[in-house]
């Protein structure tokens, strides 16, 4: 597996020391004082990263290489000083079509989220429209074990319609009350489904978040005997490197069971680490290390530095971190349950396998996040890339972390254009009136997959009682939502 990057910083215009004595600004008392980029560490850090690595760098006028002459250009200092709010400054550097770049005031929130650690009450839910207006209801997808939601008796299929006494509603990204889910504690107003109608039941449940709640992304793995066919089933809810060895064991168990077919359930999986995606794809298809899984496409000035083969990642025969030999099923077909909550690294697995394996998509259109990102912090010695071994070098006065989009991954056929999502082969919405038991052969989406496997699709109706009209989910309120993290693949080098 190639490890590279693309260091533009050493050659870039902006990576010089600040020496100009002409950058004079009045201070709070009206006295003239010299200002340098060092006086605006947060904005300077963000600009350096975005100018060098941002996928749409050439499409954002303020990020143009010709915009400023140097770090000590008075116009550059004025630009840094023009927006004191770091979030507004960062957002002002984004391309209009960018849906997924984001930041956090404390980079630890990003790092923890990529390890499956968060401040959470353990309730994972979806949000759906109901009625003919902007009203929204929530439906519980699953509950994290030993969380507050678990202790309060919340379970898959529960319905709620209010939060802190307010009816949930959504008119647009800015006109809704979903921000209430960010509170440390909130109270849900529950409801029942009566005659295909969502009806309040006057039950209230108050949930409180706890720091450091850890979720194992391998929610369930089992083998289902269906009409003489042994079907392996894995529900995997996030691509987290810390569970790669456990995931390898799961594939080993399925291999020992001599399964005939495999169903990967990514319905609630928003993405994560690309190396874990490569591992899963290799465990499905084979440890063919001479065959291409993905090719990364960066911004133009980065691509111009590439040699043949740079940016390419093949299938693997070991886990990425521990180098444990990989268990593989060597399948020619795989079923993937994917919905409008499925994004990023989940979509990467589907797209990367498509040239080699018959990927049968059950469910709904996916999100369409075909871009990847990386975590950056104020560590110029490491070219701003976050590295846990160098945390002592991160500027203590600037703890912001940014997660800008760096590029897109294409598969071996060169396909990467799925911004509108991957289209299902067999379409079926989740049914809020019958979510079913995950991993049970009667759960609607899994039942559809099993019916396709057995050739019985035409013999059963899968019409939902209350079709989910998906708006958002609990995972979208967490740091790193919808992430495809090139952690471990991108390596800053001293020279290119």
UniProtKB/TrEMBL annotation:
Source species, domain of life: Bacteria
SUPFAM superfamilies for this protein: ClpP/crotonase, PDZ domain-like
Keywords on record: Hydrolase, Protease, Signal
Keyword Protease assigned: yes
Domain Tail specific protease: 200-429
UniProt-recorded Gene Ontology molecular function terms: peptidase activity
Keyword hit for Hydrolase: yes
InterPro entries recorded: ClpP/crotonase-like_dom_sf (IPR029045), PDZ_sf (IPR036034), Pept_S41_N (IPR041613), Tail-specific_protease (IPR005151)
GO biological process, any: proteolysis
Any Pfam family the entry gives: Pept_S41_N
Signal sequence region: 1-20
Protein name: C-terminal processing protease CtpA/Prc, contains a PDZ domain
Organism of this sequence: Zobellia uliginosa
């Amino acid at each position: 597996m190639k490890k590279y990057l693309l260091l533009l910083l050493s050659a870039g215009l902006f990576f010089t020391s600040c020496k100009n004595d002409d950058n004079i600004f009045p201070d709070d008392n009206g006295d003239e004082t010299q200002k340098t980029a060092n006086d605006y560490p947060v904005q300077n850090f963000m600009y350096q990263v975005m100018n060098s690595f941002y996928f749409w760098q050439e499409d954002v006028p303020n990020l143009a290489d010709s915009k400023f002459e140097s770090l000590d250009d008075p116009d550059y200092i004025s630009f840094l000083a023009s927006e004191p709010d770091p979030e507004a400054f960062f957002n002002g550097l984004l391309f209009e079509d960018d849906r997924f770049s984001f930041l956090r005031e404390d980079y630890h929130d990003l790092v923890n989220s990529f390890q499956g650690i968060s401040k959470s009450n353990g309730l994972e839910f979806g949000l759906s429209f109901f009625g003919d207006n902007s009203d929204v209801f929530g439906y519980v997808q699953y509950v994290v074990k030993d969380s507050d939601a678990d202790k309060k008796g919340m379970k898959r299929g529960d319905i709620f319609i209010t939060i802190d006494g307010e009816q949930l509603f959504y008119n647009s990204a800015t006109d809704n009350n979903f921000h209430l889910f960010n509170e440390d504690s909130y109270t849900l107003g529950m409801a029942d489904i009566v005659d295909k109608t969502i009806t309040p039941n006057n039950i209230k449940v108050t949930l409180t978040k706890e720091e450091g709640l850890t979720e194992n992304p391998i929610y369930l793995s089992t083998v289902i005997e269906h009409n003489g066919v042994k079907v392996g089933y894995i529900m995997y809810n996030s691509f987290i490197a810390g569970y790669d060895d456990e995931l390898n064991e799961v594939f080993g168990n399925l291999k020992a069971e001599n399964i005939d077919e495999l169903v990967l359930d990514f319905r609630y999986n928003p993405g994560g680490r690309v190396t874990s995606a490569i591992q899963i794809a290799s465990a499905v298809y084979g440890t063919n290390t001479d065959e291409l899984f993905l090719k990364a496409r960066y911004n133009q000035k980065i691509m111009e530095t590439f040699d043949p083969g740079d940016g390419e990642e093949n299938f693997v025969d070991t886990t990425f971190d521990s180098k444990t030999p990989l268990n593989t099923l060597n399948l020619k077909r795989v079923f993937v349950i994917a919905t409008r909550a499925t994004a990023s690294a989940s979509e990467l697995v589907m797209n990367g396998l498509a040239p080699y394996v018959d990927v049968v998509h059950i469910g709904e259109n996916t999100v369409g996040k075909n871009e990847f990102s990386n975590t950056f912090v104020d560590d110029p010695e490491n070219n701003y890339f976050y590295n846990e071994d160098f945390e002592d070098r991160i500027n203590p006065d600037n703890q912001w972390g940014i997660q800008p989009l760096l590029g897109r991954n294409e598969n071996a056929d060169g396909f990467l254009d799925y911004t509108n999502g991957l289209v299902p082969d067999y379409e079926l919405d989740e049914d809020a009136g019958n979510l079913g038991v995950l991993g049970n052969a009667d759960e609607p989406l899994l039942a559809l997959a099993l019916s396709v496997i057995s050739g019985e699709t035409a013999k059963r109706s899968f019409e939902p009682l209350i079709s989910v009209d998906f708006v958002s989910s609990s995972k979208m309120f967490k740091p790193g939502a919808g992430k495809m993290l090139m952690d471990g693949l991108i390596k800053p080098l001293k020279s290119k």
